[in-house]
Design brief:
mainly alpha
């Protein structure tokens, strides 16, 4: 594996050289940031689809971005990709005292507690807030989930799933009232509160809301494409739009096809 990794590093260094590619030479960590995020999402999609060849390809694209960004920092004297690998390996060993030390961890929960305990020891100075450790750049759904996890660590949490479930019922009533009031600002706020409460309930049910929503998106897209296909086939004219009844019928057909 070392040979292949070294070859990738040499290739990227060549691309960044004066004799290399103008596009690659032009890149900065900031310009590559969207690429890195995109490749991570594409990898997640491939994993969700259990598309093994695509998973392999997307993981390679993540490696490419990591090595490219590391090479840029090597060029300005900050650090090398070797430093990155050395540091993450040391961190893994340090945060797994139940594997590389004498700490006992009999299940996943105690192993995670051990990891978090070691992580806390590494902090040179405490953050002003627990929430400061949640990146601002996270997508809103992920950010809500992570903030709730942080708050729960110090006991600021419902004791069981019935708490967030009741909160959802409350937020639905308040959203309905805001919709009737005609005040868009209030409605927007209540919709946000409702979404936040749903994320909280998912967390209590041990469901990753990001994964759950991704799967719902994929299911909708799959069924809607079937609706598009079937309605075009049943349309009596190219300029005639299908009725809602026709589209609902196709939607139900798509659902039944998935069950069979």
């Amino acid at each position: 594996m070392s040979q292949e990794f070294d070859a990738l590093c040499r290739t990227i260094r060549k691309l960044r050289s004066p004799e290399g590619c103008p596009w690659d030479r032009k890149q900065t960590p900031e310009s590559l940031r969207p690429c890195l995020i995109e490749e991570c999402f594409e990898t997640v999609n491939a994993i969700d689809a259990n598309d093994i060849p695509n998973i392999r390809e997307e993981l390679g694209d993540i490696f490419l971005n990591i090595v490219m960004i590391s090479e840029i920092y090597r060029e300005n004297g900050s650090f090398t990709v070797t430093d990155v690998l050395k540091e993450v390996n040391e961190k893994l060993i340090r945060r797994h005292p139940h594997v590389f030390g004498d700490v006992k961890a009999d299940n996943a929960e105690s192993a995670l507690a051990s990891w978090n305990s070691e992580k806390e020891k590494e902090k040179t100075e405490p953050a002003a807030s627990l929430l400061d450790t949640v990146p601002e750049s996270y997508p809103p759904l992920l950010k809500a989930w992570k903030m709730q996890q942080k708050a729960a660590k110090i006991g600021f949490d419902w004791p069981d799933p019935s708490g967030p479930k009741n909160k959802i019922d409350e937020e639905i009533r308040e959203t309905e009232a805001a919709a009737l009031s005609g005040n868009f600002s209030d409605l927007e706020e209540e919709c946000g509160d409702l979404l936040f409460a749903i994320v909280n309930w998912c967390r209590h049910l041990k469901v990753n809301p990001v994964t759950a929503l991704n799967k719902a998106n994929e299911k909708f897209a799959r069924r809607f494409r079937y609706v598009e296909k079937e309605c075009r086939l049943s349309s009596s004219g190219i300029h005639q739009s299908p009725s809602l009844e026709e589209m609902n019928r196709a939607w139900e057909e798509a659902k039944k096809a998935e069950i069979r």
